[in-house]
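Checklist before submission:
- one chain only
- standard amino acids only
- sequence pasted in full

Submission:
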Amino acid sequence: MADKKNVGFGLLPKLVLGVIIPILVAFAIIGSLVFYSWDIGEYRFTSIKDIGSESLKELSITSTKESKSSLDRAGEKTIREKAMDVAAQMEIFIQSRPSKMKREDVLRDPRLQEIAVQKVGETGYTAVHDTNAINHFHVNPQIVGTDLHQLSEKFPAFWKILEASLKGPASGYYDWKDADGKIRPKYMYLASVKGTDLIVAATTYIDEFSRPSKVIESKMKDIERRYVEEYESKIRIFYIVVLGVLLILLVRIIFYARSVIKPILYLAEVADKISMGELDTPIQVKAKGEVAILAESIERMQMSVKAAIERLQKRKEGRA
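Returned file contents:
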């Protein structure tokens, strides 16, 4: 029998790779579309995963921002109404005092003190100063009688709002350090007491009103966290399923490729035997299609070679 030649990269690996590689490429493309975002020049492709994640984040940011904004506006309204209410109460009280009563005596009245200093929110309060920026009523007795101009350098944002109130109603935000040392924004509204030179200032930390938005933000983050956890869990399952499918496909492709190659190798062996003179070698191939055509061709070749040898032998016998 003739020596078998080394065929190198044979038909089996070619068939396997020829089928499995396009499948892997298809999975890779699908995976990139589902799990990865990428940029091409000015264009950005957002994956299905990131679409959900970004939409959830955008919803979280928008809902938190809108709820905080709404609560801040409600807080501002509460502070403003408190300042105007205290100013109205002081106006009524002062007008009810005898006209001959001195201003100093009116301001020393403890009942006016109770009206002038009231609670705002959880930690805020109202205070009263005049158009010369001299404080007359404050939750801290040490500040009473203080010239508030002294605060202009130390608390410029606070002073800017207060200075505006010396000419009329004013409001605004300023940063203030709380008892824990944290700097938090406060909102202040200042309303004039009609018929007097007094001005009521109502102020407190604005986050006392927007605190519920923190709860909303926390819940949205919790939803986002659960979304990520569930997504990662589903991704692990997806990878396991894909790996299983690829293994099944690979096994199936190998068996299929072997079923295609086996009759070809058999026919190659038959052809090799025929070439070595074994003309009676049976050709038993059940394959169809191109392999069946090849088997028929080899069988015809076998018959032709056998017939040619028989004719050649008859000629030799006739000459003898």
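Reviewer check: Residues 277-320 form one domain.
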